[in-house]
Amino acid sequence: MLLLEEEEAVLEFERDVLAGAGANVVTATKSADVKTRLLSEHFDAVIMNGKMPGDWNAKEAYTWIKQNCPGMDAHLLFTFSHGLEQGEIRVFLEESNIPYLVKPFEVGDLISRARRLLQKAKTAAAN
Fold it and tell me: How many angstroms from the chain centroid is the CA of residue 4?
């Protein structure tokens, strides 16, 4: 599982939660790192901040992943630090049926969403 978050403390917390739930977690703090890793490594799921400061937003990230990593777009979960004031992004996520969590979220919600993504990856790999 690849985890992208620019805030180090949040990244460490989410990594520890996911690792504690049994996930193998690789972390990144910049979208360029995510792009490089996704093009060169295999991940069962990607959990990423949907609004990186001065960087990708969720729509741009989803579009890039869909174009460059076929099938990975079905294994994405976006997180947001400040709600989804941006109506356009919220509408895009809901219309595209892309899962997301808004911080502060319950730890159990993060774990359960991550497990769903990993289960989808196992099912896809078995087919």
Answer: 7
> pLDDT digit string (tens) for 74-86?
999 999 876 666 5
Q: How far apart, in whole angstroms, are the C-alpha atoms of residue 105 and residue 126?
A: 31
Q: Mind listing the pLDDT tens digit for each residue in 46-85?
A: 999 988 766 678 889 999 999 999 999 999 999 987 666 6
